[in-house]
Amino acid sequence: MGISFTKLGDVYYQAGDWENALLNYQERNKIAKEICEKIPENLSYKYGLSVSYERLGRNYEQKGDWKNALYNYQENFRIIKEIYESSPEKLEYKNSIAISYQRLAGVFINEKSVEDGVKNFLLAINIFKEIVTATQGKIIYYVYNFSWNCDRVSNIIKDHSLFQLLDKAKVKALRQEGYQAIKPLAEQGLLQEKEKKLFTKLSDESWYIF
């Protein structure tokens, strides 16, 4: 039943119907909490609860409700961090905590807490880099996440002159890492449209002139 609410919520979310998406995500979250209260030691159920908070946060973000987005992303992070620390070798959990940092970063940026946003993006990048290394850069989804975050944070630092967080040389090096990670996949013709757009952005040599 809980999974059905998630799937239905996703359908409404993709259609841009935030209100009906929210109702279904809230039902999913309610069921997940009840299950975890009964069986608190089950990591799979905990993971489902963390995902339900992530969906709620994402939906509130689309609605521009940053307060509720932040609360739900923080709950997602709290739970997934606990799960990850119990099974750090599992890529699914490692990827989830990286995405959780990324989600938090996005809210902080929109709430004008830019430095906090950058710090969370950098934490996400470090974990995504570990995943890309572990998978030998062959899985497009992981490479895209890593390269996208490199692009995003390098632009933010440059645009806001936050070189006290990462100096110019390191910002440029970070962007290059994102480029080098996705380049082999581009050369093999494996990228879809959104990945191609990202590769084009990262290929722009004029970006480095500052």
Structure overview:
The structure is a single chain. This protein is mainly alpha-helical and 210 residues long. It is built from nine helices and no strands. It is globular, with a radius of gyration of 18 Å. The model has no long low-confidence stretch (mean pLDDT 95).
What's the layout of helices and strands?
Elements: H1 2-14, H2 18-38, H3 43-63, H4 66-86, H5 91-110, H6 114-134, H7 140-160, H8 168-187, H9 193-202
Helix pairs in contact: 1-2, 2-3, 3-4, 3-5, 4-5, 5-6, 6-7, 7-8, 7-9, 8-9
Number of helices: 9
**Which topology of the domain at 1-72 does CATH recognise?**
Serine Threonine Protein Phosphatase 5, Tetratricopeptide repeat
Strand residues, percent: under 5%
Task: Classify the helix fraction into a percent range.
Answer: over 70%
Termini separation:
54 Å
What characteristic shape results from the CA principal axes? globular
Which class best fits the helix and strand makeup?
A: mainly alpha
Regions with pLDDT < 50 over 5+ consecutive residues? none
The CATH homologous superfamily of the domain at 1-72 is named: Tetratricopeptide repeat domain
**CATH architecture of the domain at 1-72, please?**
Alpha Horseshoe
Largest sheet: none
CA gyration radius, whole angstroms = 18 Å
Oligomer: single chain
Q: If you average the pLDDT, what whole number results? A: 95
How would you spell out the order of helices and strands?
HHHHHHHHH
